[in-house]
């Protein structure tokens, strides 16, 4: 979830008083870090995935299912291996927001061998089995994006009651008790309390209910202005969801900026393709994805910043939550597509420019730093700006965007990195591995073929909203570049972030008209099937990956595994296979307890997750979701002979 500083959390009033201190020193820390590391070269491809899991408890006698609030206890046992042998463990485990959640990553990052794609799924299986070995028979670790009845009475075990009138509570939610927030680190409750207090009221998440034949309005618990919406009022409804994320190390800062930009238009495509969360607070909703739920769950903007009142006490009108899609590209090739006016702190922008930060990167950082810190520890207030980066990371790590540009940590062998953040968690390790390998392979193709996916930021924003609609993977069309194999001459070679437009020192993005001037014939509306599988002269992303693989030395087992993964991606895109969200909907509405009223009963949820468990365990085939014959050749380790003789790297 980001930076986990140790120490004593400050109150919101104390944190607010230090907001400018954190911003100014965070900028100085970034300037110093950049000066040391801007010319760093030669880092090799390393990458890894992060899968978030929910601990689920089944009560077979009552046909009930709950989230189990034992993450802290389980994490303590999981972390014993790392403490004993930090270099030798196959997995690493970290806390997440929910007291029922854990996050697992590979023990070490994967590298540049194509054979590494054949160990991803096996490592995910190992992680799942490692957790399962610590659970009693009635508990299961599941990689589900959202627990369908989160916020319903009795959804936790042990039972916990929301206490909205208790001023000492962090969330003060009508539905989500503080006991469901991870208790093992103060960051989580501190964020919850400070976001609520900074906003001046509880967060307000409202999703349109799925309109079935007998759906009642107003929906139970809805707010008067949104009677046909499912209302949620706590950070836990968003940050209590699970996702699948990837981080890549680039060879230098220029490559990192290129990947950041080129993957940005892929974010809504992958969000729709991995859609897995149609159910919230015991209702089917009319959306398929978690993104806007999390965005609203941490929206700390005041009414002035949201544009509901004229600016008087606050500095900026801010157009998005701090959890949302990115607002500007970082590479010179992307500058002309920065068509959304960028709100930034001009004083900090000028300081960054004085610190020898180029325009595109300076405006990106100055935009992130319009936010206040929402979690600060007393031990971290005063730092050495030449060596520490906690103030920078304090703001950076609480801008939860679709992509994250990550500088190297100080005094570390780790290089410039890019994090890809939109994907929803899938039921099985096979699916999660397929998504991971597809995206990593796509980065190799982007760099090898110099592909160009860039479209105006405004079009990416439009795609992000459309990607979350019910059935979007089949029913929506998305703006995408027509000719992805042609980067304008010269732009691919620029690395300093400066172009003619930036010489004027304008700390703003361009206008919509300027981006449109590049020619709307550059991009068009396409289906995800067309983007993934191709149409006419547009080659399709999977065929391009296969073309790339055809030029590489790939061992037979790895080739077999990759092809299984690519087929899953292709069939999800074409509609031959369902998304997880569509499968969940189908299970809910076909259940004998379902009354065509959009409500997910306890028994319905129990049977849904029981079936999901059997599918993830390989006990129950699910050809409509996974296809047939999905046995990949995944293995725990790269065979020594392959590692020795494979010289071609991806």
From TrEMBL:
GO biological process, alphabetically ordered:
glutathione biosynthetic process
Q: Where is the signal peptide?
A: none
Is the keyword Calcium in the record? Answer: no
Which superkingdom does the taxonomy of this entry point to?
Eukaryota
Q: Where is this region: Disordered?
A: 489-516
What does the sequence similarity comment in the record state about its family? Belongs to the glutamate--cysteine ligase type 3 family.
Descriptive protein name: Glutamate--cysteine ligase
Q: Which organism is it from?
A: Anopheles minimus
